[in-house]
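Our working data are protein records whose layout never changes between entries. Instead of coordinates, the fold is spelled out as a row of discrete tokens. Here is such a record, shown just as it appears in the course material:
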Amino acid sequence: MAEAEIAVVRRWFEEVWNNGRPEVMDDLLTADAPIYGVGSGGELVRGPAGFRPGYEQLKGAFPDIHFIINEAISERDLVALRWTARMTHTGGELGPPSNKTVTVTGMAFARVRDGKMVEGWNNWDMMGLMHAIGQSPHPAIIA
């Protein structure tokens, strides 16, 4: 059964992110699923409607974003995976386009039931990404 749960999460990354098909979100994520680690300021988002604004911002800034699943395991209804994303900052959603190509790593966990994700946790290096494209949420410190 673990392969079926992993397949749902792999499909999310392949279809939604790599193929740029946000309409698939509704097929793979329940409407009320809490998703941790993607909202601004630690805000909890729920379901495709809550996830979509952040997705659109990231895809707008990095239209060519491509995820590779490095490793995925499943225990009961919980899938854990480690990923690498490569992308080029050509859109203006995260500051002026830098045209820099960056690589970011992260981890995701998803609870899968009946072929859909019902809960998700995400952890990735957003600060490193922002620094790589010349954007920082902190002003420069002058000694």
Remarks:
- The first strand starts at residue 34 and ends at 36.
